[in-house]
């Protein structure tokens, strides 16, 4: 049966290919048959007309039969002339019109009818007497001619409508859809099992028709037509995805037809293999086509048409969710990411963020569909990509300040998603993980203290404003932990500003939130929506109370850490000196960032520290610093805590303020020494002074060795120099213990 079905399918394919010739023979057979039948019944017809009407149809002299050829010539000239003109003009905007016309049954049958009927009229005009076929003359003149003439105007209107580009698009789409439905039929399944040619035929037709739509999209300049094409492509792929489970797996085989298609000519063998295994050749082609169309639209400033493409991607994504096809969903995400990259490049080059503004809206709609479907994995994936692109945009916004607003937009879109996630009742753990991603959309504040003092808010202030609005939402629904997380992140800005400046900025942000309404006073692509509006204004004061309550603790930590930052600056300066004044871009950016943080905590502290007497407690702190930093030129966050706790072990009444001052004295000594030999010499001297101090007996010295070991173990990496420094201390203090560098992965331990 497979072979029989295969033969039938091939025959059907032949009629599609050779429709022009087949239609000719259909009309020819029809006209010959009708002539024969009419001649057979002509006597009865003639008697009826003679008796009832009084007209003798058998006598050519009693009826006019000689005018038909001239009329036929006029009709044929009008129809063919109209066809040539209409098709020629329409082909300028629809280059594939001729391909469709020669496969249109109605046009082919009607035109062949006119041509063959005209030839029939000429034939009987010259041969009516010798043939004795008066019946043929009557048939042609009073039946064929009537039919041909009466349908002339309707056919001309049909051609005019048929040649309209929107109808061409609809026709091509209908052809693709018919092929999709055909591929579900058992006969086609059987034919594909029997013959690869049938498989290739269907692959060629569905991809070729899609290429026709692509050509039309590139060729036409009318917005209406471009919109129709994009929507038809979307409808086709959605239908394809829905019906795909009913197709024969043979359809997805890698064939010469797929390899020869322009979309896949750059694919490697591995890519071909993956595409075949995932059965994705048609979806990939559609996504590539839409991606290329998006690039063309934004380059031609067709922002509204460009925005339609991601909108249709959302509909495609919804269809994938309904079909539970994660492979296609992954490609939908990839396409959104690709569009984002293209839009970013265009925005950077032309300082035109509008495409990003619209694209963020549609990408967010896709995320919301994932949320509605409880797809936590897809949601987290998209959040991560929002974070990635936001950080890239923020980095480039220094040259194009208008791009700062896009970061605000991305934050706003994710804020909507967070509200929806809350309404869907996701776990607090998942919600908090996603919130943390939102809090990573901004970078260090892009504004100065002077600007804040003047009331100028730039940089990431819009992002912060939206984040504060989200905190207000969480406070309104009694999710204190979430609001606290936002407040803690906001306090990161304290690293760059003093307390007064930070409070001024916060108060300004909260004031703006208190006066903003849901609408903006100007129009945008989204109407007059105000993305900074927060309806929970009654939670502003509770948020400020929460924020400022956390601020004191953060300020203490920052004041303590400023000396650690100075050590990092010193390390970079030493590196620059070794490299003849050169630092790479990352190191330069890092140094500038550190210097900004240090400047924010700048005071007369250094002058005070210089006048303070160096005491044994400073020797102790200096030794701790050397173990943490001097050994590997790095201080981990965990090491900072161990240094503080170790110092407090010997001075129980220690406060943050005292530690900050003492550590500042030790750090300044370390930095001012500059030379490694001098720093090592000071380390040795400090160890000797500690040994000679009355406060340190062998027990305390052993405890201090344990502190050194804790610092070395804090960052999970034991540096050889750390071991050497500890061994040096044991030697100077003459302790009956030892330490040796452990094997990789083990902790450093003291041996008696």
Summarize the model shown:
The chain is built from 34 helices and four strands. With 752 residues, the protein is an all-alpha fold.
Question: Can you describe what's shown?
Answer:
The protein has 752 residues and is mainly alpha-helical. Among the domains are: 162 residues, no CATH class; 161 residues, no CATH class; 140 residues, TerB-like. Helices cover 75% and strands 2% of the residues. The protein is built from 34 helices and 4 strands. The strands form 2 sheets. Strands 1-2 form a two-stranded antiparallel sheet. It has a two-stranded antiparallel sheet with strand order 3-4. The chain is elongated. It starts with a helix and ends with a strand. About 3% of the residues have low confidence.
Largest sheet: 2 strands, antiparallel
Strand order of the largest sheet: 1-2
Share of helix among residues?
Answer: over 70%
Q: How would you describe the oligomerization state of the chains in this entry?
A: single chain
Which structural class should the secondary elements be placed in?
Answer: mainly alpha
**Rough outline:** elongated
Can you give the mean pLDDT?
Answer: 81
**DSSP E strands, number:** 4
Rg estimate, integer Å: 41 Å
């Amino acid at each position: 049966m497979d072979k029989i079905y295969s033969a039938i399918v091939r025959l059907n394919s032949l009629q599609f290919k050779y429709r022009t010739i087949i239609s000719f023979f259909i009309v020819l057979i029809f006209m010959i048959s009708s002539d024969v039948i009419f001649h057979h019944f002509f006597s009865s017809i003639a008697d009826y007309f003679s008796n009832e009407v009084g007209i003798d149809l058998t006598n050519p002299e009693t009826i006019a039969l000689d005018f038909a050829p001239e009329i036929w010539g006029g009709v044929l000239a009008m129809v063919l002339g109209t066809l040539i003109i209409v098709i020629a003009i329409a082909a300028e905007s629809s280059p594939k019109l001729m391909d469709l016309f020669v496969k249109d049954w109605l046009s082919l049958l009607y035109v062949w009818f006119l041509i063959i009927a005209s030839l029939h009229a000429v034939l009987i005009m010259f041969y009516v007497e010798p043939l004795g076929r008066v019946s043929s003359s009557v048939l042609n003149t009073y039946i064929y001619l009537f039919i041909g003439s009466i349908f002339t105007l309707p056919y001309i209107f049909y051609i005019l409508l048929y040649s309209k580009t929107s109808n061409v698009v609809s026709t091509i789409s209908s052809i693709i859809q018919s092929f999709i439905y055909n591929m579900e039929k058992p006969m086609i399944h059987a034919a594909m099992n029997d013959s690869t040619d049938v498989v290739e035929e269907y692959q060629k037709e569905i991809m070729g028709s899609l290429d026709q739509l692509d050509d039309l999209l590139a060729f036409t300049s009318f917005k209406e037509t471009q919109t129709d094409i994009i929507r038809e492509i979307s409808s086709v792929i959605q239908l394809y995805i829905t019906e795909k489970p009913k197709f024969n797996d043979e359809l997805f085989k890698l064939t010469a037809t797929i390899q020869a298609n322009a979309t896949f000519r750059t694919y490697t063998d591995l890519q071909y293999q993956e595409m075949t295994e995932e059965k994705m050749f048609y979806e990939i082609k559609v996504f590539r086509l839409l991606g290329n169309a998006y690039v063309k639209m934004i380059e031609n400033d067709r922002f509204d048409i460009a925005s339609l493409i991601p909108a249709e991607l959302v509909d495609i994504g919804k269809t994938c969710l309904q079909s539970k096809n994660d492979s296609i969903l992954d490609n939908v995400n990839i396409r959104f990411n690709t569009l984002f990259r293209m839009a970013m490049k265009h925005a950077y080059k032309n300082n035109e963020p509008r495409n990003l503004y619209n694209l963020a809206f549609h990408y967010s709609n896709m995320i919301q569909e994932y949320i509605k479907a409880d797809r936590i994995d897809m949601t987290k994936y998209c959040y991560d990509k929002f974070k990635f692109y936001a950080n890239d945009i923020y980095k480039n916004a220094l040259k194009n300040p208008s791009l700062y607003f896009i970061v605000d937009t991305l934050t706003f879109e994710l804020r909507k998603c967070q509200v929806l996630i809350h309404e869907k009742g996701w776990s607090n753990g998942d919600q908090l993980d996603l919130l943390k991603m939102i809090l990573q959309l901004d970078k260090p504040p892009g504004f100065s203290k002077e600007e804040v003092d003047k009331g100028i808010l730039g940089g990431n202030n819009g992002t912060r404003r939206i984040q504060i609005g989200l905190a207000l939402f969480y406070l309104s629904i009694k999710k204190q932990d979430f609001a606290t997380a936002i407040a803690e992140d906001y306090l990161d800005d304290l690293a760059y500003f003093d307390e007064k400046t930070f409070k001024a900025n916060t108060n300004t942000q909260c004031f703006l939130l208190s006066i903003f309404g849901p609408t903006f006073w100007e129009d945008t692509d989204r109407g007059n929506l105000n993305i900074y509006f927060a309806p929970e204004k009654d939670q502003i004061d509770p948020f400020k109370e929460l924020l400022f309550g956390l601020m004191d603790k953060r300020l203490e930590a920052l004041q303590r850490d400023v000396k650690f930052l100075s050590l990092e600056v010193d390390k970079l300066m030493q590196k620059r000196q070794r490299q003849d004044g050169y630092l790479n871009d990352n190191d330069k950016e890092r140094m500038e960032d550190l210097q900004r943080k240090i400047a924010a905590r700048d005071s007369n502290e250094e002058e005070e520290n210089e006048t303070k007497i160096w005491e044994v407690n400073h020797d102790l702190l200096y030794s701790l610093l050397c173990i943490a930093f001097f050994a590997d030129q790095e201080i981990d966050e965990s090491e900072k805590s161990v240094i503080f706790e170790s110092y407090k072990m010997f001075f129980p009444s220690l406060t943050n303020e005292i530690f900050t001052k003492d550590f500042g004295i030790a750090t300044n000594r370390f930095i001012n020494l500059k030379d490694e030999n001098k720093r090592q010499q000071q380390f040795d001297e400090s160890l000797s002074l500690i040994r000679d101090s009355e406060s340190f007996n062998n027990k305390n010295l052993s405890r201090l060795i344990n502190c050194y070991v804790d610092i070395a173990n804090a960052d999970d990496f034991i540096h050889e120099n750390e071991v050497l420094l500890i061994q040096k201390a044991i030697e100077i203090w003459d302790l009956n213990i030892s330490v040796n560098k452990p094997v990789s992965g083990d902790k450093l331990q003291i041996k008696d």
